[in-house]
């Protein structure tokens, strides 16, 4: 049910948020930890975003 959503993780505390929009999830974490170091990835994919006509391929195992 979360395939295609973004997970944003505070790498120092381990807190995370899952949301359709990665920026919204990052904003929610930043409210709790204003100077957090955040990492984000699209669930089920090997990248968070594609630029310049790149193709996002789904990771299936």
Give a description of the structure.
- By secondary structure, the chain is an alpha+beta fold.
- The protein is built from one helix and three strands.
- The protein has one helix spanning about 20-30, and strands at about 5-10, 15-20, 40.
- A three-stranded antiparallel beta sheet has the order 2-1-3, with helices on one face.
- The protein is elongated, with a radius of gyration of 12 Å.
Cα distance spanning the termini: 16 Å
How many strands, what sense, and barrel or not for the largest sheet?
3 strands, antiparallel
Q: Estimate the global geometry from the Cα principal axes.
A: elongated
Helical fraction equals 10-25%
Class of secondary structure makeup: alpha+beta
Q: Strand fraction band? A: 15-25%
What integer is the average pLDDT? 87
Radius of gyration: 12 Å
> Largest beta sheet: what is the strand line-up?
2-1-3
The assembly state of the depicted protein chains is single chain
Q: What is the H/E string?
A: EEHE
How many E-type strands?
3
How many separate helices? Answer: 1
Poorly predicted segments: none
